[in-house]
Write a structure and sequence with these properties.
12 strands; TIM Barrel; 9 helices; alpha/beta
């Protein structure tokens, strides 16, 4: 278990918010050194749709990578998703689109809009099928694939992305971790920050085992943690609970910039190269600027 060959990068979790706010925060994050913006993908929520919102921000920024946290496979036709991603890649000049894919985790989000929510095994298979179809359509003029739900028959999307579109997978369970190591360009840890370095080491071990068994160099798989960052200390526990019963220690990086840098470095030693962060809404613009100036600049 060692550091990857990738540079240390930080992303801002834009989440769900009005378009003007999302654009302002995205442009601000880009200016102060963030490398990636991620958006929420939960169609039944009372918020703007994630792909449309991210596209609007993408075309009014210049260099930040655009992704979702995560883009849930059951919501969309996979062949159309391949074309959507290729289109946005071309619109933004190439190299700025990544697909952070999820198998889907909350049944009500699907059932409410008439989408069958399969078993864990079925959703895992559907994700595997989706990865094959996405890459097949990007690489070939026509592509056929017979999956459990996702199928193509001499399908074509009519265009090609400007270059390879990285596929990340949000994963936590052993089977999904090993699969991610075997096929994905990157891994995003599901369900927030690690509860401990031991938990992180176990997950990274599964990821690297999957890569090695597939004949891949584990260092070629990127690794991202996803949680909150706060300069405010323990008083921010409630703002960052994230899930019922989960406190700040297991979800976030907290403290002054020097303490944050130490925490990031400890995770870096365990193989993490990407940190996807959200900040407290109260004073969020100031937090983003401070993080860029006092953490990102020094981390590099």
């Amino acid at each position: 278990m060692a550091r990857t060959a990738f540079p240390l990068t930080f992303g801002l979790t834009v989440g769900t918010r009005p378009y003007a706010d999302a654009l302002e925060l995205g442009q601000l994050a880009e200016r102060v050194g963030f490398s990636r913006l991620t958006f929420s993908d939960r169609p039944p929520d009372p918020s703007l749709e994630g792909w449309t919102l991210s596209t609007g921000v993408a075309v009014q920024t210049e260099k930040v990578v655009i992704a979702h946290n995560t883009l849930n496979i059951p919501f969309r036709n996979v062949a159309l998703t391949a074309k959507m991603a290729a289109t946005l890649d071309l619109m933004t000049g190439g190299g700025r689109v990544e697909l952070m894919l999820g198998a889907g985790g909350q049944a009500l989000h699907y059932q409410a809009i008439g989408i069958v929510f399969g078993s864990a095994g079925e959703r895992f298979q559907d994700l595997r099928d989706a990865v094959e179809i996405l890459r097949g359509l990007w690489a070939n003029e026509k592509f056929s694939y017979n999956g459990r739900v996702n199928q193509t028959d001499d399908a074509t999307i009519g265009i090609k992305p400007a270059g390879p579109i990285p596929i990340w997978i949000g994963a936590l369970g052993p089977r999904m971790m090993r699969y991610t190591g075997a096929v994905a360009d990157g891994w995003l840890k599901n369900q927030g920050w690690p509860t401990s370095l031991d938990q992180l080491r176990e997950l990274v071990g599964l990821l690297e085992d999957g890569a090695e068994k597939a004949g891949r160099d584990p260092k070629t798989v990127r690794r991202a943690l996803n949680g909150g960052a706060s300069f405010a200390g323990e008083a921010s526990t409630q703002a960052y609970s994230g899930r019922a019963g989960t406190g700040i220690a297991g979800m976030n990086v907290v403290g002054e910039p020097a303490a944050m840098l130490e925490q990031f470095e400890s995770y870096r030693d365990e193989g993490i190269d990407t940190f996807q962060l959200r900040f407290e809404e109260d004073g969020i613009r100031e937090h983003i600027v401070r993080f860029g100036e006092e953490v990102i600049a020094k981390a590099r």
